[in-house]
Amino acid sequence: MTSPSPARSTWAIDPDHSTVQFSLQYMGIGVFSARFHSINGAIAANETDPIDSSVTVSMPVESVDVRNKTLYDWLLAKDFFNHEQHPEITFRSTDLERVEASRWHVNGALAIAGRTCPVVLDTVYLGQVHHPFAERIMAAFTAETTIKRSDFGLGWNMPLASGTPALGEHVNVKIYITSFRQD
Questions:
Q1: 1 located within any domain
Q2: Which residue, of 28, 53, 134, 183, has the greatest Cβ tally within 10 A?
Q3: In this structure, what are the phi and psi dihedrals at residue 70, rounded to the nearest 5 degrees?
């Protein structure tokens, strides 16, 4: 007798209702924040055994949303994202760990500007609903992590008169994902 196969489902990240925000210390006293407004990706879920699930995400670097054209151009240049050589930021999960009923650590590889480093996304599953307009099942998640700019070669900086660096080393990342079941 064979055992039933686990309930597997595929979810597409909704680029219209998902965002990745980042912030870091600016000029020693302020905070600079921005976001990426184009996110693509998929979640392969094993609903019987969620630890056997995975996620892949990509974001075009050119979708970084800042209010200043000069800053936008600089962020795409070699000092930061190096858009010409590395047009996308990617994340691929390697494994999941249950922390609490709706909270997970999603471990994975984050690639920025040609460098790939391990990261842990502290993820909260917000639940599922039947979307009345899309007529599909929708699921939502939030996730947070902190990365070091230098790990990804984003080390441009300059000392201020006080000796404090103009940009902080640690970048706080907040992720808001809405996804739709595809099968």
A1: no
A2: 53
A3: -60, -45
Domain span at residue 157 reads 8-181
Q: pTM to 2 decimals?
A: 0.89
List Cα–Cα distances, 42 to 20, 60, 180, 181, in angstroms.
15, 15, 9, 10
- CATH classification at residue 127: 2.40.128.110
User: What is residue 68's three-state secondary structure?
Assistant: coil
Q: Which long-range contacts (CB under 8 A, 24 or more apart) does 152-155 make?
A: 152/110, 152/112, 152/113, 152/115, 152/117, 153/113, 153/114, 153/115, 154/79, 154/80, 154/81, 154/112, 154/113
3-state SS string over 111-148? EECCEEEEEEEEEEEEEEEEECCCCEEEEEEEEEEEEE
Is residue 3 one of the residues assigned to a domain?
no
State the total domains in the chain.
1
